[in-house]
Amino acid sequence: MKYLPFVLVLATLPVAAQEAKVEAGPKPPAVSAVLAARQTLTERVSVTGTVVPREEILVAPEVDGLRIAEILVEEGDRVTKGQVLARLSRETLATQVAQSDGARSRAVAAIAQSRSQIAEADAALTEANAALKRAQALRTTGAGSQEQLDQRTAAARTASARLASARDGLRASEASLTEIDAQGREQRIRFGQAEVKAPADGIISRRNAKLGGLASSAADPMFSIIENGALDLAAEVPEQRYARLAIGQKAELTLPDGSAATGTIRLIAPRVDPVTRLGLVRIALASETKAASGNFMRGAIITNQRETLAIPASAVLFTNGGKSIQIIENDRIVTKPIVTGLVDGASIEVQEGIAAGAAVVARSGSFLRQGDVVRPVIGGKE
């Protein structure tokens, strides 16, 4: 009986050793995980392009062959509609206007003369008709001769013809005055067109006019004006993202100096270049944008934005069966298929497959299998 304690001790040794062995075994691997949570995602389409005038007005002379006498604006000047940009030599036009004024004075005098002739011829016709009536009365009574009646008849006809001729002369003089007035208006218009004016408000983008040169509508325009100073970004977008664009979508852009700018899609071209596979869009730049025509710009168009359930894009597995993720449930790996949506940088929307709060393996990979035991590490804490 005195050896009994020793026997009991020996019997318990294997059990203690077994427990110590279990406690000393390897721990499950630590796996970084994130909790699926709702956040605002913004889907963007990258763009690059060149700044161009929204509407560029070409200003050409309306009168050819005149020497450029004065230039009143330079490139970069802001002008208003009707402002004089340049003046052409007007000596020849002034002479033509003076000649037209002289011709009009002669036509007015001719009209006055024709009216006097009409009055004179009308009086003569009245007198001749009266004499004819007297002669006819005398001839009826037998007191007058046939010869006298014939003379009075001829005189009346002559007076009538003179009156008709005077009236025709008046109509001719009035027609001449109308023609001269039309020519005079044309000459005055040409005289006014010797001042080259801005057809709209804007900014002078190019000046081709040179002092002493001859104005010609067939040559390069004298000036180019950016209407209202409005600028667009002519941007190119890959065809696979072209269908996501819509008029009115906002754009976040970067100027060459690194400063930020904003814009709105104004126009989407109806075709994609078959060689480059790029489509052209016009982005109307905000009026305060400090850009110049010809500048290069890059940025992104915001095609969609909403608050939704999101996870890191690195958590998504792409297989022949579709997209899936690995989540941790009860310290074990569970693979679940998902349906994704918006992509915003390193985040991706999950439309179907998991709920908010699920522990998602942050970087999924082939080293983890369904059912593997792991130690989740969320936010740096186990």
From TrEMBL:
UniProt KW Signal keyword: yes
Domain of life: Bacteria
Coiled coil spans: 111-138
UniProt signal peptide: 1-17
Keywords carried by this UniProt record: Coiled coil, Signal
Listed SUPFAM superfamilies: HlyD-like secretion proteins
CusB-like beta-barrel domain ranges (all copies): 233-289
UniProt KW Transmembrane keyword: no
Record-linked InterPro entries: Beta-barrel_RND_2, RND_pump_MFP
Gene3D superfamilies: 2.40.30.170, 2.40.420.20, 2.40.50.100, Helix hairpin bin
NCBIfam families, A to Z: RND_mfp
Entry's family note: Belongs to the membrane fusion protein (MFP) (TC 8.A.1) family.
Record protein name field: Efflux RND transporter periplasmic adaptor subunit
Lineage, uppermost ranks: Bacteria, Pseudomonadati, Pseudomonadota, Alphaproteobacteria, Rhodospirillales
